[in-house]
Amino acid sequence: MVPMDFLRQTKLLSFGYFIVHLVSLTIAQPPDFLSFRCQNDVGNYTTNSNFDRNLRSLLSSLDLNTQIDRGFYNISVGQPGPEQVNAIALCRGDVDVNECRSCIGIAVGKILQVCPNQKEAIVFYIKCMLRYSNRSIFGVMEDRPPSHLYNRYNITDVDQFNRALLTLARRLRSTAASGNSLRKFATGTELIAGFRTLFGLVQCTPDLSKQQCDNCLAGAFQEIAVCCGGKQGAIIITPSCNIRFEVYPFFGDTPATLQSPTLPSPKAPSAPPPPPADGKKSNKARTTIIIVVPTGVVILIFCICIFLKIQKAKEAVQTVDEIITAESLQFDFGTIRAATDNFSEENKLGQGGFGSVYKGTLSNGQEVAVKRLSKDSGQGDLEFKNEVVLVAKLQHRNLVRLQGFCLQGIERLLIYEFVPNASLDHFIFNQVRREQLDWERRYKIIGGIARGLLYLHEDSRLRIIHRDLKASNILLDADMNPRISDFGMARLFVMDETQGNTSRIVGTYGYMAPEYAMHGRFSVKSDVFSLGVLILEIVSGQKNKCFRNGETVEDLLSYAWRNWREGTGLNVIDPALSTGSRTEMMRCIHIGLLCVQENMTDRPTMASIVLMLSSYSLTLPVPSQPAFFMNSSTYQSDISSSMDYNSRVTNSSEAKTALSLTANEASITELYPR
Question: Are 177 and 204 in contact (CB under 8 A)?
Answer without folding.
Answer: yes
